[in-house]
Amino acid sequence: MLKITKFGGSSCASAEQFRKVKAIIEADPSRRFVVISAAGRKNPKDNKITDLLYLCRAHVDYHVDYRPIFEIIRGRFLEIKHELGLNTPIEDELDAFAAKVPDLSVDELVSRGEYFTSRLMADFLGFPFVDAVDIVAMEFDGTFNFDKTTENLKKVLEKHDRFVMPGFYGRTPDGAVKVMTRGGSDISGSILARCLRADLYENWTDVSGFLMADPRIVKDPKNIERITYAELRELSYMGASVLHEDAIFPIREYNIPIHVLNTNRPQDPGTLVLDKIDDEVDGPLITGIAGKKGFLSIEVVKRNMSNMVGIVSGALDVLRKYEVSIEHLPSGIDSFNIVLSKKDVEHTLYEILADIKERIAPDSIRVTEPLALIAIVGRNMNARAGSSGKLFTALGNAGVNIRMISQGSSEIDIIVGVANADFDKAVRALYQSFAR
User: Fold this and answer.
1) What average pLDDT does this structure show over 95-123?
2) Which residues does the UniProt record annotate as the domain ACT (predicted)?
């Protein structure tokens, strides 16, 4: 079996965490290709290395001395090196890097968190270090060239049958370093799994897989033992942030499972992510509940709208003009609602409303905010009657007013909109009703 093994920032935050990583790698000979994130927080009061690197850049931009911040970064890496007795001579590299900080692109600057953490991890594991720029081929727009990446990997494998690689970044055709979105090391591991046609992609973090609900809202929610790619995509998008939502795409077409595991509790079963799970008869009704606050709804009313052409598209053209993404678009005979992220329109909302009025001349237009969206996700809901009724009953008994409801054609989720103030109460009511 071939496994790609990725460790997140919390798994690489200190010498103690490095030791846990080594024990996990040595426990299974099939863990030969390791992807590493930048060192994260050692404790809640600490800082992530990547955040400190972004702060260095901000200091440079505002003509403030960045070196005190860099010394914190340097100290973190040297602390790990000395405590573990490593031989990697990173002192000179760190000093040279410090001198170049003002001249580096933002991408190259922040990528050094993964780079230096991986250098130390490779030394500690006794594995070769391979830089991500020598493997991960990215286009200028941030997309991935899988053919080129596979070609690069073949060259590396001629020299090494195992290695440690930094996550989060790759190289564009002009040779420049380009980073992914935050949490992108999850994607790096997924790319490696795809191009090596791995049997399993292990993603090690600081939680034991996915939970059925946010533990900050629901006390001791159940663990999700198995979940499909589609369900994971829905839950991740709605705020369940254990795994980067885009980590699914590189491996989905090859049906490579993802196993989300806990570095601090490697004995826990974690969550296995699969393409399909055939358990409609006796499987759980729902897989999980997730949600986010901070939305608003634009309600547009126009009589006889169903007999007119271009009313909805006219409103959407206005939003396209302002480059605003639409979350949901529930509609009726003479009305429709456009649900948006509030932060996307905080500076342009009144202009958008004025343009919609001019474009389609509605009978009325009204904004409802603040709004929270909650997704009830489950692959078995479409096979069992009464899911929607159960949802309405649970929220009604909890005294929660539903402002919006939407169900996708895939029927794996039902999304409801509630007032921000009712968010926690609604999540608890839904969990108590569905997770029994």
Assistant:
1) 97
2) 376-436
Residue 305 has pLDDT above 70, yes or no: yes
Q: In this structure, is residue 73 part of a structural domain?
A: yes
Whether residue 281 has pLDDT greater than 60? no
269 token code pair: 């079963």
Please answer whether residues 369 and 339 qualify as being in contact, where contact means their C-beta atoms are separated by less than 8 angstroms. Answer: no
Q: Which domain holds residue 35?
A: 3-206
Q: d(Cα 209, Cα 207) in Å, to the nearest integer? A: 6
Number of domains in the chain: 2
The response to whether 50 counts as a known ligand-binding position is: yes
The residue among 206, 236, 262 that closes a domain is 206
Helices within 210-281 (DSSP H only): 229-237, 249-252
Tokens for 394, please give them. Answer: 């649970």
Compute CA distances 421 → 19, 118, 403, whole Å: 44, 43, 13
The C-alpha R_g of the chain, in whole angstroms, comes to 24
List the CATH number of the domain containing 199. Answer: 3.40.1160.10
Task: Output 84 or 278, whichever has higher pLDDT.
Answer: 84
- Alpha-carbon distance values, 39 to 26, 234, 302, 397 (Å): 21, 28, 55, 46
Residues 14 and 157 grouped into a single domain:
yes
pLDDT of residue 279: 66
Residue 233 and residue 192: Cα distance in Å, rounded? Answer: 20
Asked whether residue 6 is marked as a ligand-binding residue, the answer is yes
Please, are residues 50 and 38 in contact by the beta-carbon 8 Å criterion? yes
Q: Is residue 273 part of a domain?
A: no
Q: Does 216 appear as a known binding residue?
A: yes
Q: Summarize pLDDT for 375-401 with one digit per residue, the tens.
A: 999 887 776 777 788 889 999 999 999
Inter-residue long-range contacts of 230-233, CB under 8 Å, 24+ positions, other chains counted:
230/379, 230/410, 230/412, 231/287, 231/288, 231/377, 231/378, 231/379, 231/412, 232/258, 232/273
Give domain status of residue 425, yes or no. Answer: yes
Q: What mean pLDDT, rounded, does the chain reach?
A: 93
327 and 185 together in one domain: no
pLDDT tens digit string along 253-269?
Answer: 899 999 999 999 999 99
The CATH code of the domain that includes 292 is: 3.30.2130.10
Q: Coil, helix or strand for 131? A: coil
Mean pLDDT of 2-30: 97
To the question of whether residue 33 is assigned a binding role by annotation, the answer is no
